[in-house]
Design brief:
By secondary structure, the protein is mainly alpha-helical. It contains eleven helices and six strands. A two-stranded antiparallel sheet has the order 1-2. A two-stranded parallel ribbon has the order 3-4. α7 crosses α10 and α8 crosses α9. It is globular and about 65 Å long.
Amino acid sequence: MVPDDIDGAELWKAAVLATTGLRTLFNRLDATELLDKLYPEGDYWQKVLRYCEAGNLQAVLDEYVFQLRSQQAPGEVTAEELWSLADDIRRSLSLKPAQMLAKYPDGSHDDLRMGSRFAVRYSNAKTDDGDSNRMPDVRRAFNSPFWPFVLASTSVGQEGIDFHWWAHSVIHWNVPGNPVDFEQREGRVHRYLGHAVRKNVADAHRAEVLKPGVTDPWESLFSVAAADVAAHPEDSNTEFAPHWIHPGAHKIERRLLDHPLSRDVPRTKHMLAGLAKYRLTLGQARQDDLLGLIEDRAEIEPLDLRP
């Protein structure tokens, strides 16, 4: 909540700063082509407003600001924090596309240069203006409801980086050498107030906050969810629910790219068996992995489930 002692002019200035990012987004050629296709009639600014209304931009920004606020000190927002929120929104919408080079196999033509916006590398690839200090900007933009929507990374993004704000699916291009590294990869999207958790909380309690007078829907959602967990402690792990885990249809998705008859198939099978045992020792077994381990008859004899 914005306290009453913050100058209204400062609030408007912060809003203008944030919307400069939206202006950058809607001034792109691909955005203008899309809106001209969707809305053939009217001036461009009218098309932008109709598009924002159709996509419920207000709800998108409500959730985004809630996520940004979760990284700040609790309580009423200060003027400095307000400007920080606005600047984060502006910068996430203003990510410069990096150049990718496609080479012709026969070398008959020069390299084909392509700008990448919707799927990007988590690296310091140079942008059009030569800037190579790109990784913080990519992380900020990916942790927003706007593009990029796909992030490709080497092991540099495997540990200590948060990518969970709007992602809950991890595609493993290869299999790491040990279960700890495997857990670290999936831990990038399985974190506090993660995307899957928010979707489950919203599915369970949205009817209770879609009422007149609710000014902060996401804060209200998690307050209702926390009260529900406290009232039924037998149904949830109260230490982690509802901010880290919440029952529902949305889960952390693991996608493995094992090609049939490749050597990755037995490696993946061995890794998942080791991962199930690793998590079992921590008392946090994942059901799918544990069932897969038990169904493999070769693993039944040495498996000791005693506490």
